[in-house]
Prior knowledge:
By secondary structure, chain A is an alpha/beta fold. Chain A is 41% helix and 13% strand. Chain A has helices at residues 11-30, 44-48, 80-90, 104-118, 142-150, 167-176, 199-206, 238-244, 274-287, 293-303, 306-335, 361-370, 402-425; strands spanning 35-36, 97-99, 133-138, 154-161, 164-165, 180-185, 216-220, 251-256, 268-271, 341-343, 352-356, 373-374, 392-395.
Amino acid sequence: xxxxxxxxxxxxxxxxxxxxxxxxxxxxxxxxxxxxxxxxxxxxxxxxxxxxxxxxxxxxxxxxxxxxxxxxxxxxxxxxxxxxxxxxxxxxxxxxxxxxxxxxxxxxxxxxxxxxxxxxxxxxxxxxxxxxxxxxxxxxxxxxxxxxxxxxxxxxxxxxxxxxxxxxxxxxxxxxxxxxxxxxxxxxxxxxxxxxxxxxxxxxxxxxxxxxxxxxxxxxxxxxxxxxxxxxxxxxxxxxxxxxxxxxxxxxxxxxxxxxxxxxxxxxxxxxxxxxxxxxxxxxxxxxxxxxxxxxxxxxxxxxxxxxxxxxxxxxxxxxxxxxxxxxxxxxxxxxxxxxxxxxxxxxxxxxxxxxxxxxxxxxxxxxxxxxxxxxxxxxxxxxxxxxxxxxxxxxxxxxxxxxxxxxxxxxxxxxxxxxxxxxxx
Amino acid sequence: xxxxxxxxxxxxxxxxxxxxxxxxxxxxxxxxxxxxxxxxxxxxxxxxxxxxxxxxxxxxxxxxxxxxxxxxxxxxxxxxxxxxxxxxxxxxxxxxxxxxxxxxxxxxxxxxxxxxxxxxxxxxxxxxxxxxxxxxxxxxxxxxxxxxxxxxxxxxxxxxxxxxxxxxxxxxxxxxxxxxxxxxxxxxxxxxxxxxxxxxxxxxxxxxxxxxxxxxxxxxxxxxxxxxxxxxxxxxxxxxxxxxxxxxxxxxxxxxxxxxxxxxxxxxxxxxxxxxxxxxxxxxxxxxxxxxxxxxxxxxxxxxxxxxxxxxxxxxxxxxxxxxxxxxxxxxxxxxxxxxxxxxxxxxxxxxxxxxxxxxxxxxxxxxxxxxxxxxxxxxxxxxxxxxxxxxxxxxxxxxxxxxxxxxxxxxxxxxxxxxxxxxxx
Lengths: 426, 426
């Protein structure tokens, strides 16, 4: 059957097609599905492959070769061995790494919280300012936006292109408005679009001349080693690029092993200039004695080095690659050529971003829910939960099984068509 | 040799004694000691007894009986099993417990930080107030005072009696000054005096009528199960006492397994009214997805319940009890009857508090340092590091060996005498 753009359908053809699709939809509803494509979290089989981590330290002798004793107090910024591993992962120097607890999200929140209460390297604490603004490339990660909401930071959406945020927009705000203190970025396999920032975009970030001395790029490299294919996307090292311009204090990098080892019990990290680390530590020293060093050593003993991490990530790719392909195959075969949807085909990360016909995302979401499939909430990928064009849906393919995904993806295509036809027919 | 109060010594007798003691001191100096009585941390043998914790979870099957999966995301306030264990330890209901990461200190800091940025249950954020004050029973815990310093909270010292803080002083401030938002307490085996608050003191806390609606008692029950003897001190349950007065929102309780399992990799917890928990979670939900649940389950599987914890604490007591006794024996045999020092004989906890002749603590500290023994910094047990009478020294007996402690304690008595004689002779 040749595919025809929906916009070129006659009124009668559209109505006929809609009636057909409704019948199919009714069959799905009758099946009483209970599926969930909303959660960007690893499936149980991805957790099972990390079993060896449990016993990477199994007796007192296993901690004896590391000094000071990882079981005791101390080590506010992590053990040297774990800093070395994250330095290798992130392409920075070990002296530019701070190890945290089990979540980079908490490190991001705390970094913003410190800026609110204490300022940044001597700047006015943000709580004393009339207004603080962050730039938010959209669609983006809801928990980044949540941190801004929590502290009453005004969010300004920034358009995303195929190679990263629109840097003209970014430059306009950052270089002219001293209230703009930050920008949220997921530079590799971006959440949710899956794109990786181009070298030009990274260099444009590193060349920014911020109006605010305390402007920082929050560079959440959450998917730094999360390739689906042998040849992964390459991301230019922003700290090095910033340093070339004498602006190494302008960026905070975040990462974690949450989607390498265990989401609930991994190791988070930040990378930044030594001056930024010294500034952060001035407050951190009151907040903590040090994060869990046994878990750090456990990870070091298990993964050993970047090669060990990459070998482990290939096992993840083998498990979730087919899931991404299941969704993408459905989208390609069902929706391509109809001019009612656009989507990304990420080569890594955890999400696929689907833009349905503007004005129909909420309707698609509801049709899915009514048929028993939970999708990420509409608008979650936008500041204040507001998708102005009502077009974006985030697909999280990792948690369901391939069979479940096949069903859910086919239903998603069906709902996208139904909602589009409703819109077109008016 | 009969002991004579130093104040009754003739000038000649004092000078002669001083000369004798100086000779002995010179012998200590000549030994080139390298000892440390400054750190309130467990010794390696205390960490060795917890070896079984490493393998309490050793394979995927070990996490299979707990749902949801502890390896994955989620569980912002901890797993039910860990809440139940801390509820038993603290004598509260599991619904009144929030589990954190590896440190109760971080939970205290974050609680203050949230109050600074967001207020308490709808009160004005403390960063918007002209002044915020905390009461600090002295001597106390330096890291509590550090949190206040970090946020510019004014600290007011409160006298400590043998049964807890002077509640008349506490009441005067709390009930008349709405800028007083908190008080730091270590109610059992207090840091550093080792005393436990009496039932009357606990009831007096629970009966406070604060001028500030957002006044909270920061009840750091760090040594809740840290008895040195079979018959431990008993601490009345403050949350229950507060509830009897309809004031269950007035207290935050903190505790951790840092000195039960591993200081670097234990589990922290807070206990408080469900209303306080709901208020804290409003901000926590932006800061974290959830603390390390695998480590929680590891602790639950290893300790099982309060009986398991108490059996384990007996092993700690067997290791550190003799250390406390070594110090106390030296103080008793060398300093009693001389009227130049007073000290506590704690039945648990991690410290012994020594009050030397007023005006000589810094001198004693320096004499010790010059002979190669590090003591906790003078003034560390007071707000702003200022011991107004220059009298208090904190002894941390757990980390050194018994032999090291014997030497260090004898030297401490010697230095206390030397400094006292210098003072008396003028």
